[in-house]
């Protein structure tokens, strides 16, 4: 338990606010920090994650036993995954001019730290963190989750 709390505290420090810019059309955000074994699965192809890499809707991020990754989304939402974790970005919509936004992140297993960005303020019901057993609606907050695989 103490190790988990240390990781969560470290993850929150790693995902300090950074302005995200998506140079690639359709990118939801960028990987800011990678440590250890981390892959991005896109269209059933797993590639090693690198800092600066774009993250798109439908991407899955998987960390190995020594892996950690921090992502900053275009609305400044920040997410970190700890070791042996997996999460899929099921939805990312950020249209501030139209006052529309939505983020659905499916957490399959592992540790995740989340710091809400502008979507949570723009569309309070638009952020959902889904786990195998629950859906967490987020309305502007910082939280950490642990999802154990079945």
Task: Describe the structure in your own words.
By secondary structure, this protein is mainly beta. Helix content is 12%, strand content 50%. The chain has helices at residues 2-14, 118-122; strands at 27-35, 38-42, 45-48, 54-56, 60-63, 68-73, 78-81, 86-95, 100-115, 127-130, 135-138, 142-147. Strands 1, 2, 3, 4, 5, 6, 7, 8, 9, 10, 11 and 12 form a twelve-stranded mixed beta sheet that branches. A hairpin with a 2-residue loop joins β2 and β3. It is globular, with a radius of gyration of 14 Å. Residues 12-23 have low confidence and may be disordered.
Properties at a glance:
150 residues, 2 helices, mainly beta, 12 strands, 12% helix, Jelly Rolls
The largest sheet is: 12 strands, mixed
Parts with pLDDT < 50 across at least 5 consecutive residues: 12-23
Strand content: over 45%
The CATH C-level name is: Mainly Beta
- Number of DSSP-assigned strands: 12
Count, helices: 2
Q: Radius of gyration, Cα only, in angstroms?
A: 14 Å
Q: What best-fitting shape do the alpha-carbon axes yield?
A: globular
Can you tell me the CATH topology?
Jelly Rolls
CATH architecture: Sandwich
- Percent helix range: 10-25%
Class computed from helices, strands and strand pairing: mainly beta
Mean pLDDT: 86
User: What sequence of helices (H) and strands (E) makes up the elements?
Assistant: HEEEEEEEEEHEEE
Q: Terminal Cα separation, in Å?
A: 19 Å
């Amino acid at each position: 338990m103490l190790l988990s709390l240390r990781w969560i505290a470290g993850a929150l420090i790693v995902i300090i606010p950074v302005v995200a810019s998506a140079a690639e059309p359709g990118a939801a955000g960028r990987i800011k920090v990678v440590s250890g074994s981390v892959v991005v699965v896109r269209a059933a192809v797993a590639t090693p994650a690198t800092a600066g890499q774009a993250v798109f809707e439908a991407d899955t991020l998987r960390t190995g036993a020594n892996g950690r990754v921090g992502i900053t989304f275009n609305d400044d939402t920040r997410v970190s995954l700890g070791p042996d974790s997996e999460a899929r970005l099921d939805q990312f919509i950020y249209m501030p001019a139209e006052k529309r936004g939505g983020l659905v992140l499916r957490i399959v297993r592992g540790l995740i730290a989340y710091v809400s960005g502008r979507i949570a303020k723009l569309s309070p019901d638009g952020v959902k963190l889904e786990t195998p057993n629950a859906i967490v609606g987020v309305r502007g907050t910082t939280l950490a989750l642990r999802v154990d695989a079945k």
